[in-house]
Amino acid sequence: MPRFQSTLIELTCATCGKSFFVKPSLAPRAKFCSSECSYAASKRSIELECPACGKSFSVIPSKAYRKFCSRRCCSPLVNFRGTVEERFWKYVEKTETCWIWTNAHTPKGYGLISVNGRLISATHVSLQIHGRPNPGGLHALHNCPGGDNPACVNPDHLRWGTRSENMRDRYAKARAHP
Hints:
Blueprint: E1 9-12, E2 19-22, H1 35-43, E3 46-49, E4 56-59, H2 71-74, H3 84-90, E5 92-94, E6 99-101, E7 112-115, E8 118-121, H4 122-129, E9 139-142, E10 158-161, H5 163-172
Antiparallel strand pairs: 1-2, 3-4, 5-6, 7-8, 9-10
């Protein structure tokens, strides 16, 4: 029993259950009777489930804020928010003629979507989703009825074309810089 018991507060160790005494100023933070008990408590693990892959994983209590089992699962490259097609439709707003891309876009207004960690053109994804994959190295050219709309991802307003066709189309529609 401590010599100055009247000035100390008795607590119970969170690890071993033994009683121990601390100064009143330390009582709010004191949970363990010794550094061994503190260390043992920090090494106990908690089972969590990864929201990306569904796998169960263990963490120590001080790391219980972790949500994912690995860096791969917590990476934005993992599409646990849905497939590319599901994410594509989430950001499309259909109007009478054009389908407007409402998410990230280039400074000139062309839509962007992340696929496998790379930002690619939303027009390319639109054409691919609608059964018109890029035959290789081609550009998506617009032909919107009310004039070209860079944010449009309506596959009826898009076609694949070469770089030179894209440049000719750009000059014909007065979208090029002088």
